[in-house]
Amino acid sequence: MTSSPVEKEVNAFMKGLVRRNPGEEEFHQAVREVAESLMPFLLEHRQYYDANILERMTEPDRVVIFRVCWEDDQGCIRTNRAWRVQFNNSIGPYKGGMRFHPNVTLSVLKFLGFEQCFKNSLTQLPMGGGKGGANFNPKGKSDREIMRFCQSLMIELHRHIGEDTDVPAGDIGVGAREISYMFGQYKRLENRFVGVLTGKGLSFGGSLVRTEATGYGVVYFMQNMLAARGEQIAGKTAVVSGSGNVALYCIEKLNHFGAKVVSASDSGGTVYDPGGIDTDKLAWLKQLKEARRGRISEYAEHFGVEYREGRPPWSIPCDLAFPCATQNELNGEDALALVGNGVMAVAEGANMPTDRDGIHHLTEAGVTFAPGKATNAGGVAVSGLEQSQNALRIAWSADEVDRRLQEIMKSIHDQCVRFGDDGSGRVNYIDGANIGGFVKVADAMMAYGVV
Ligand code: NDP
Ligand code: 2IT
Question: Looking at the structure, do residues 310 and 170 belong to the same domain, yes or no?
């Protein structure tokens, strides 16, 4: 098969990237998706191509790798590895979450940090891209063990971050509890009370609506996508994966908008509730997941609904699908099942949850598909608003923050339409998000000269 000039350029670019970053599969996957979107644009706008901007953007500014030793409740000394990938600060201080999960590797954090640069740019707020985390498994650990781990991690991390340098937040395995322990330790070490982390508690500088922001934002984005097709969320059946921070508030906002959500999941399996996870059931589910840190199988037992052990929710019939758990959780087979059941639109709550085959099958079938760097940007957007409130030493009302969140999600949608309209009347949200996110960062780098 002969390849087009664009494909040749992408393949040559990817060959170099893979050679420079051997074995980093998630990072290769994230960069390839961006390179495929950008290459036609770069070839048309030669100033970026000639300046090798994409190659420069795929090399992180720096990566900090460090040991975290801590003592468990039995008195055993445990060792984990932690990272902070400071990817690109061209348009603002590094900004992005910390992930605690046993499958965290440098490749995973580089893919997340790379995507974060585009996502943060799309919010139009002054935030660069970064990501961090540790190969630490919070499951089954006591609160005191989590505290000791977070404090030990911050003993090293504090010298690399700051409110104008790098501002971490939460991600998988890092929520309000972990942010509180890390913020408390930073404050002790630096003797400064500043907005160095976001997702803080409301009594010490947190923003209203940050907890809800990612999940709500995904639904606001879906609302915009459907409106562009003359459709609406009310009356639709939705399938959601995950049952963590993003999934729970995605379900909540879908309920507000009159959809019926028939699934939730965790790494153990999926619950299928054909009657819908209504407000009362969601309150129970939040208690299970946020307070008791229990398993989703308990929902099935409690409400007498089906539990599909070890399986994702994608074979459940739905109009709208929201993958909100983790990367590569929706593959080609899953996409075909969704298409077979007549899915209309997919919005990613997680980062890169749909693999390459999955995206191919969904888009081939004409399903409206939007990538996480656009759809889940509401979380980091409200983190940006938390930084603004901290800097101003004020606190906005929930209505004010929610209004700004809705405006930002609409503006991200507008950028996707502007850069992703392929002339056929359909919007390619992947191209739109990648090109829209790229331009601002690239223009800043060009202005700085050879950097
Ligand atoms: P949480 O830790 O709150 O929840 C994660 C959920 O995903 C849990 O239900 C978890 O199940 C499930 N999950 C995690 N890893 C796996 C796995 N390997 N296989 C199957 N299920 C898994 O994380 P968040 O809700 O914060 O994050 C979810 C996704 O959203 C991530 O991709 C994250 O990067 C992305 N995101 C988060 C933002 C935020 O503000 N928090 C912002 C933007 C994106 P279990 O408990 O069994 O592990
Ligand atoms: O992936 C993400 O955008 C996040 N985990 C949120 C980052 C942030 O700084 O709020």
Answer: no
- Assigned domain for 396 exists: no
Please tell me the distance between residue 219's alpha carbon and the centre of ligand 2 in angstroms.
17
> Is 221 found in the same domain as 138?
no
Mutate to test the pocket of ligand 2, among 125, 167, 171, 390 (most ligand atoms within 8 A of CB): 171
What range defines the domain where residue 344 resides? 213-375
Residues 366 and 217 in one domain: yes
C-beta of 383 in contact with ligand 2 (< 6 A)? yes
131 given a catalytic annotation: yes
| Mutation pick for ligand 2 pocket among 383, 387, 412 (CB with most ligand atoms within 8 Å) | 383
Give me the amino acid identity at 115: E
- The angle at the Cα of 351, spanning 354 to 24, to the nearest 5 degrees, equals 85
The rounded Å distance from CA 222 to ligand 2 centre is: 19
Look at residue 389 and tell me if it is in a domain.
no
CA of 97 to the centre of ligand 2 (A): 5
| Total structural domains within the chain | 3
Q: Count the neighbouring beta carbons within 10 Å of the beta carbon of residue 198.
A: 27
For the CA of 264, the closest atom of ligand 1 is 9
List Cα–Cα distances, 427 to 239, 296, 338, 416, in angstroms: 23, 36, 20, 8
Considering the candidates 131, 253, 281, 373, report the single residue annotated as catalytic: 131
pLDDT digits (tens, 9 = 90+) for 50-94: 999 999 999 999 999 999 999 999 999 999 999 999 999 999 999
Model confidence pLDDT, tens digit, residues 188-208:
999 999 999 999 999 999 999
Specify the pLDDT at position 386: 98
Give tens-digit pLDDT for 373-417: 999 999 999 999 999 999 999 999 999 999 999 999 999 999 999
d(CA 118, CA 36): 15
Identify the residue whose C-alpha is closest to ligand 1 atom 42: 379
Paired tokens of 437: 């996110």
Residue 198 lies in a domain: no
